[in-house]
Specification:
This protein is α/β, with parallel strands linked by helices and about 475 residues long. The chain has helices at about 20-25, 40-45, 55-60, 65-75, 80-85, 90-100, 110-115, 120-135, 160-170, 185-190, 200-210, 225-235, 260-275, 280-285, 300-310, 330-340, 410, 445-450, 455-480; strands spanning about 150-155, 175-180, 215, 235-240, 245, 260, 290-295, 315-320, 345, 350-355, 360-375, 380-385, 390-395, 395-400, 405, 440. It holds the Pfam family Fer4_20.
Length: about 475
């Protein structure tokens, strides 16, 4: 063990790739930190304790072989490390950038519990996959022997793209239908470039296109075809739309001009980043330049809006959240990044009303002070009004970022027989992952509700296996009948 590159966590301090200075990174939409240089990546990977029960892998939804590819990285076997990382994940460099590692792998790292600081797993994962792209180690998608069956995937987000990749590898003809003009879903239009630069997503999409997956972009089920139409065209259908319906705020004046949805705001910003022409009226209503911005919410979408507004040159940026910092759902790292860049968090606060000037545009937010009361059904302490702590806050752009629910797919798609839960999520059989409709499967957020990208990838992997099994049985039945 004397010559082993591992177990260096005692004499080697935890280090992340250096972040650019807040005042510099707030001027652009580039990622805020560069990746490790080779020696630094190898050194940080060598801090892994190679523990007998790797809690990092246990708490990773994909159950990535983390200790193994950390060891390979520490040994300088970078291509082997990449290939092992890629074996369980279709998007390792994306997960390395946007997974909340502080809540998953790194937050459960054994040496984190000893006080030495977790291994910087996400940064190493990003490093080895970016290195693979640079060196040409990322293999093209090679279709399996043609099976003579086709699959429709509705939704080009991480769940849909992952399933499409596995199904194409198994020899199916795969068609991906998506409402946007670029594939990627929220990876492309919902997450800002400072967390995930868009060429990183587009090169993954291009790889799938080069592998023969057919993309129908700007295609809306319910407008361009019904669900039944797609069932007639294909042997199986996967519903992987995600959840896009913004949760509403019930407060007087919420319909005022300048009170906008988080996703509308982020999509407009990302479109500008692509160089798209955004209609002037839309661009003005969804631009924070010179405005007093109030973001409502405490999740990662709220953090994305806060940090985007700073980069657009807002006069001030405040984030209201009805609980305290310790109870917010968003990543603590993202909160710290936002604070470094100049955002102000107003904890234990909620909007009570939105006041407008004469022409109907929002001018201020009446803020109700909150306190944490008894735990609710989820076990979290429920926020309640704290009398005497109400305030008024100037605002000429309010961004609602309270999360997302499922759209009414049965109604939108003319498919009343598609079974959904009382929350609108699509119901599937726990073993087959099939919906109430024969040959129609579902996966990702549209099944589990708004969740993490890494869970969507896991769901896409699982549903591809279930669909493969079902399609093989279907083909065998048809051959027998013939």
């Amino acid at each position: 063990m004397a010559d082993s590159p591992m177990l260096k966590f005692v004499d080697r301090v935890q280090a992340y790739p250096a972040k650019r200075a807040p005042e510099l990174r707030a001027e652009d939409f580039r990622e805020i930190a560069d990746r490790f240089a080779v020696p630094a990546a190898e050194e940080q990977a060598g801090r892994c304790s190679q523990c007998g029960v790797p809690y990092c892998s246990v708490h990773c939804p994909l159950h990535n072989h983390i200790p193994d590819w950390l060891r390979l990285t520490a040994e300088g076997r970078l291509r082997d490390a990449y290939e092992l990382s890629n074996a369980t994940s279709t998007m390792p460099e994306i997960c390395g950038r946007i997974c909340p590692q502080d809540r998953l792998c790194e937050g459960n790292c054994v040496i984190e519990f000893t006080g030495h600081g977790a291994v910087t797993i996400g940064s190493v994962e990003k490093f080895i996959t970016d290195k693979a792209w640079e060196e040409g180690w990322v293999e093209p998608l090679v279709p399996g022997p043609a099976r003579g069956q086709s699959v429709a995937v509705i939704g080009a987000g991480p769940a849909g793209l992952t399933a499409a990749e596995y199904l194409r590898g198994n020899g199916y003809e795969v068609h991906v239908y998506d409402r946007h003009d670029r594939a990627g879903g929220l990876l492309t239009y919902g997450i800002p470039g400072f967390k995930l630069e868009k060429p990183v997503v587009m090169r993954r999409v291009d790889r799938l296109k080069d592998g023969g997956i057919v993309f129908h972009e700007g295609f809306e089920v319910g407008r361009d075809a019904s669900l039944d139409d797609l069932r007639q065209r294909h042997d199986a259908v996967l519903v992987a739309t995600g959840v896009y319906k913004a949760r509403a705020i019930e407060a007087p004046g919420v319909g005022a001009g300048g009170v906008v949805e988080a996703l509308d705001y982020l999509i407009a910003s990302n479109r500008r980043g692509f160089g798209d022409v955004v209609p002037e009226e839309e661009a003005q209503s969804l631009d924070a330049t010179g405005r007093n911005v109030v973001v409502i919410g405490g999740g990662d979408t709220a953090m994305d809006c806060v940090r985007t507004a700073i980069r657009q040159g807002a006069a001030s940026v405040k984030c209201l959240y009805r609980r305290d910092r310790a109870n917010m759902p968003g990543s603590q790292r993202e909160v710290a990044n936002a604070e470094e860049e100049g955002a102000e968090f107003v904890w234990l606060s909620a909007p009570e009303a939105f006041h407008s000037v004469s022409e109907g545009s929002v001018s201020s937010v009446a803020v109700r002070g909150m306190r944490l009361g008894a735990p609710d059904a989820s076990g979290r302490r429920a926020p309640e009004h704290d009398p005497g702590s109400d305030t008024q806050m100037p605002a000429d752009l309010v961004i609602k970022a309270l999360g997302f629910d499922a759209e009414d797919l049965p109604g939108l798609w003319g498919a009343p027989e598609l079974g959904v839960s009382r929350w609108g999520t699509v119901l599937v059989d726990g073993k087959t992952l099939m919906t109430s409709l024969d040959g129609v499967f579902a996966a990702g957020d549209i099944v589990r509700g708004a969740s993490l990208v890494v869970w969507a990838i896991r769901d896409g992997r699982d549903v591809a296996a279930a669909m493969h099994k079902w399609l093989k049985a279907k083909a065998a039945g048809e051959r027998k009948a013939a």
